[in-house]
Amino acid sequence: MKDGKLLIQQGVAVAAMALLPGLVQAETWKFAIEEIPGSIMDAYAQEFKSRIEERSDGEVTVSVYPLGSLGTPTEVAEMTASGVVQFANLSVGNLGTLVPESQLFLLPYALPSDSREVSHLLGSSPVIHEQLAADFADKDLELHTLYSEGAQVWTTNREIRTPGDFENFKMRVMVSPVLLAAYEDMGASPTPMPFGEVYGALQLKQVDGQVNPISAIEEMKFYEVTDYLIWAGEQELVTAVLSSDQWFASLSPERRQLVSETIAGMQDYIHDVVQRYNREKLEAIQTAKPEVTLVKLNEEERDVFRQRTRETDQAYLEITGTRGETLLTAWNEELTRLK
Predict the structure, then answer these.
(1) What are 284-325's pLDDT values in tens digits?
(2) Is residue 278 within a helix (H) or strand (E), and if so which, with residue range?
(3) Closest-CA residue to 171 (of 184, 43, 307)
(4) Reduced to 3 states, what is the DSSP secondary structure of residue 237?
């Protein structure tokens, strides 16, 4: 009898809440990032939080979880796919095991050289938002957008200008078969390693260099344990903003529109943040370590690495098969139309 009363009471409570739509709609969304507070990803998540909370009149609260607080990037991606985490901002280098097709953006020299053009392309490309999005959906993920955190920069213990300079050089990379192949093709010995272990490995000479945008290099203090910052122009750090596709589909049309419009409106915002962060972070590095050497490869030097990495496409195709071939062909055609 007590169980019956309890069910009745629960039914009354549910009915009462239905009469209070403001209470029913109130919810908290978890937003996990793979970087520390104060990073570019954190700036993106905090701005998303501010815009969502304001436009929802406080009915939605966004809680941001920085590096490591909910697990590894792979674990965060899995939690996002299952709907445990509502949103995640993860670099494609950490999505390779879950969505291999996303490693398209790890191929060397696969993006335009102009940062504004890159931002526009990542936010609006049909290849990304129609074709690649379907590969994310196959893994229960809604791909909302991609954006770049800026040019990848090598921090090294010696000057690198040619593939020969990479001989016997251990370069820390993210766990990605495409990145492993890319740096092998460039002449280095790629060494996969968790992000949080990189500083100690550089300090202990377990690796000779690593690759990240300037913002991450300054935030993680990698410049303290290396001597050179080298711009080779081979890649940008592309990151994905994701949610569970089933969770997103379960939202009301108004909520889905709120999310989509908010994210679309942030593409120019995050581009400007990235430019400012990388400029300020480079200045901070040079102030903290005036003796650090900045090296920017010229076009002739970059062309040598570009030629060396033409075979890297094959590594991508071996992982992704005919699906990857379709995507890569469509992407190259889209880039050609832009020229």
Answers:
(1) 999 999 999 999 999 999 999 999 998 899 999 999 999 999
(2) helix 267-288
(3) 184
(4) strand
For 175-218, how does the pLDDT look when each residue is reduced to its tens digit (9 = 90+)? Answer: 788 999 999 999 999 999 988 899 999 999 999 999 999 988 99
What are the Cα distances from residue 186, in Å, to 164, 168, 171, 285? 9, 12, 11, 27
Count of positions (residues) in the chain: 339
Edge-first strand order for the sheet with 236-244 is 60-65, 27-33, 87-91, 236-244, 141-151
- Contact (CB, 8 A) for 319 and 106: no
Nearest of 327, 35, 315 to residue 176 by alpha carbon: 315
Please give the structure tokens belonging to residue 12: 């009354």
Give the integer Cα–Cα distance in Å for 43 and 89: 11
User: Which pTM value belongs to this model?
Assistant: 0.84
Inter-CA distances, 220 with 43, 95, 162, Å: 16, 21, 27
